[in-house]
Amino acid sequence: MKLIKVAAFAAIVVSGSALAGLVPQYGGGHGGGGSTTGPESTMSIYQYGGGNLATALQSDARNSDLTIKQYGGANAADVGQGSDTSAIDLLQNGYANNATIDQWNSKNSEVEVRQFGASNGALVNQSASDSSVTVHQVGFGNNATASQY
Predict the structure, then answer these.
(1) Left, alpha or beta for 7 (phi > 0: left; psi -120 to 50: alpha)?
(2) Distance, CA of 126 to CA of 75 (rounded, Å)
(3) What are the boundaries of the signal sequence (predicted)?
(4) In the predicted model, is pLDDT for residue 86 greater than 50?
(5) Residues 61, 36 contacting (CB under 8 angstroms)
(6) How far is the C-alpha of 20 from the C-alpha of 61, rounded, in Å?
(7) Positive/negative CA dihedral, 12, 124, 37, 130
(8) pTM score
(9) Residue 62: pLDDT band by 50, 70, 90 thresholds?
(10) Residue 77 pLDDT > 50
């Protein structure tokens, strides 16, 4: 049965020449992840509950989008993207959530982090030209560090 689940997950994350993935998860303690390469890729991870981990990587993926939405407490996201004209959109709603985002070798790209709740943290590193980083936090006890190189 686990083999079928792994095969189904792989089929969702890798789906053809314009790669696309969607990983919805409900409850707590899940690990969601995937990676895509190639132009015009889309990856989405949605997690509901607490103690979830999302790990996502897009490399050599110009004109691509990566979306992670986590609802609940103590969730974590580790995201990487190396591409031009691409975007990372991360939403965390709850408490004690954290995100680490790296976007490298990019041009005309953007990172947007939105965190709502208490004691959330965001670390964003971007090595890019003509690109932007936005971190929006609402609540108390939150912290954010953003760097552009």
Answers:
(1) alpha
(2) 22
(3) 1-20
(4) yes
(5) yes
(6) 11
(7) positive
(8) 0.77
(9) confident
(10) yes
Are 129 and 101 spatial neighbours (Cβ–Cβ below 8 Å)? no
**DSSP states of 80-120 as a string?**
EEE-SS-EEEEEEESSS-EEEEEEEEEES-EEEEEEESSS-
In the chain, the percentage of residues whose pLDDT exceeds 90 is 63
Least confident of 11-15, 28-32, 35-39, 110-114: 11-15
Closest by Cα among 91, 113, 99 to 47 = 91
Amino acid at 130: D
Mean pLDDT of 43-68: 92
Element counts in the chain: helices (H) and strands (E)? 1, 12
Q: Which two tokens stand for residue 11?
A: 């089929």
- Asked whether 71 and 95 are in contact (CB, 8 A), the reply is no
Torsion of CA 134, 136, 141, 145, to 10 degrees: 0
